[in-house]
Amino acid sequence: MVLVDGRRMVPFDLNGRVDTNSIPISLLQRIDVVTGGASAVYGADAVSGVVNFVLRKNFQGLEASSSYGLSSQGDAMKRRTDITFGSNFAEDKGNIVFSVGKTTMDPLMVGERAIGKTTTSSSSGLFSGSSTTSPAVISVTPVAGVTSNTLGTGNRIYDPATGKFIAYTAAVHGFNTNPDNYFQTPIINDYIKPYAQVFYTHTDVNAQLAASGTFGNSFNIPIGSPFLTDAARTQICSARGIVAANCVVGNSTLVPMTISRRFTELGPRYQDFGNDTFQTTVGSRGDFFGGWTYDAYFTSGQADQDQVRRNWGSLSKVQQAVNSLDGKTCVNPANGCVPINLFGADGTITQKMLDFVNLSAIVRQKVKQDVASFSTTGEVASLKSPMAKNPVNLAFGLEKRTVTASNSSDGASQIQSEVLGTGAPTPDRSGTLKLNEVFAEAQIPLIQNQPMIHNLAFEAGVRQTEFSTTTSTNYGTNKIGAEWAPTKGLRFRGMLQNATRAPNVNELFAPQVSGLSNLSVDPCQLGSINVADASKPGTLSALCAKTGVPATLVGNLAAPSSGQINQLGGGNPNLGPEKAKTTTFGFVFEPANVKNLAVAVDYYRINVTDAISSPSTTDILDQCYSSKFNPSFEYNASCAMIYRNTLNGTLNGVDSKGVFTGQSNQGKLWISGYDLNLGYSISMKDLGFAPQLGKLDINFNYNTVGDNAFQPTATSIRRDCKGFYSNACGVANFANKFNQRTVWSFGEYKLGYNLRHMSSLQVEPGSGTWVESFKNVPSYNYVDLNATWNYSKMLRLNMSVNNAFNKQPPLVGNTIATTSTNGGNTFPSTYDTIGRFITLGANLKF
Question: What is the pTM (predicted TM-score) of this model?
């Protein structure tokens, strides 16, 4: 959970995520992290902790900072400029701060790094391009009873040299998609101290993707299309049983074909995201009666996102344009139709053809959040243990939160696959959730300043929530904890918490849309099944036929296009809250005989039931087709969630919804581990050096994981992903990792390094057949360097080098984990793909 000065920020998307780019870095004073028992105080969505960005108060003067960064290869440039102004007013009773910043980053193409130049199959290690290529790849389902089929079955690609369709091989004919992808505070009196905050952030993110195309969609092509060569036409007629008299140019007999033609002539697709976040807060804090304090505020925020797709193309216009009998006019000439040639070599689609079928589309998303809160804290002098110095400290509060989200799109985006490459439609959808909460917290000192008990204290908290959408639900969150310090420098602590989290707006109201999931091998593809068994109950072949593989394609079903399949998912308005039990305990050691040393060790365990989750495509396919989970190969509930292409039996194309991964409250989650935090500051004098050499500040943060397991549905397996990556686990499930940072401060200079360690990973056992070298990723260590020179009271210069030794990311291919984590033949969100990155900056104060 992300807070700013202890208050919620408006989410920037339907998932409830906060865009930390909206937090002004120039005003940042510190970042506080709370890991245990936070749900009772901040809300159940803080079950795993809180990150609180604390901003500077009472800032005076003018501060300007600027930085410029560049990779060691001279690309991926990043520029940032911030200006902050602050001043007191009303005889120093008030303070106002204004800050503005701008960040610009150049895109880095996947193909601009050696690892991403060619898309690679994780299963074979070979080139694994998209079957949407140029020339076109087609698939024509033969009619039953055909005895002389010269076209063959499965995917076929047009050969310009012979004018015929030949067998398509992904490693030879696939399209390489990688190179084109983008990797104020016045004080009236002690009782009323009003404050206000205003945040506004605008971001533009431009993504570039490989050229659009027909993506295996099905089209009705006249057998007499002049764009077919006579040789190709003869092949198709043989497969469809069309007599010779009708197998001529100009014949209007329609043949259903799935066609994968990349519009290379159109250039890359673009996806532009414009985000605006605006939030205002007004409030007052101050003293209450009897030494109590209060804080009351109202905050309102709105996040708007426009997603514009350019150069994607229109499915309906392509269908209209392919229906031509003379190559000059369309059978349906509406809207200035221009016939399009999908069967020629690369370059045969003209600009006029492209202008007709091209299409841009827009989807708009809006999230609005209003929060009203009041809290008060204070001591109750009459409630004090006879063996304690301090009385009981209490806190009470209430909070009302309303979140409204909506998703709207233009007409094209609301039609199934009308925008080429998008799959399911994006219908208009909206919803509102409301939460009314009251909470209380108590800190109770029991024994203080006694032998072997420097401090023994108890704490408890409770939060009651009324959650409503179309219906209303009441639930509670509570915590109980204790702290024992036998001496001043050693304290033990523990916390038990029961938390209940309501679903967010995305989980409730997101529209059902199709995306992509990685799958290297379809259980029903090619030789995995055969015609002889297709009619035998209890065989994989029969089950594949029952789930949508056409009888004429049994044994010849094409492999997933580009190692990806369609996946259908979205929100579920019937979701309920999920329940979590957390346990944390540990100790803090600050020895009196070692100055400036602090060591903290904590154990944590989080168990979630009724978890809001969805099964992976791998889970569903395994539970249907695997002999391990379905030994009798019966058509079961998982099989019913698989929607194959009605024409070619694959899980690709507009005629396939793919695998349905709906959300439910059937999930369970188990997480545990240990955290170690060490901080130490020592003067160089104490190390035997000259005192003018300053001091060393050393920090070490280590995490080791015990469990990282989940079970998305009652019929799914309990999967522990610790140390693994896969399509079900994703990636970054490290068994252990640490950061070790050291800063040497002397005079006006600071030099430092940060060592980032990530333990080794391996592919999840049983997740598929993979290239041997792709099955393991060794442990990784990155070294970052930084230097600061306080040239004067007004000017500070700094330099940083991230990934100083230019460590390259691991090569694992493109299909071994989820599409969101596995791209460019590596894991770009986990490992550094840019390489060594150098930043120079300056900060000027007046």
Answer: 0.84
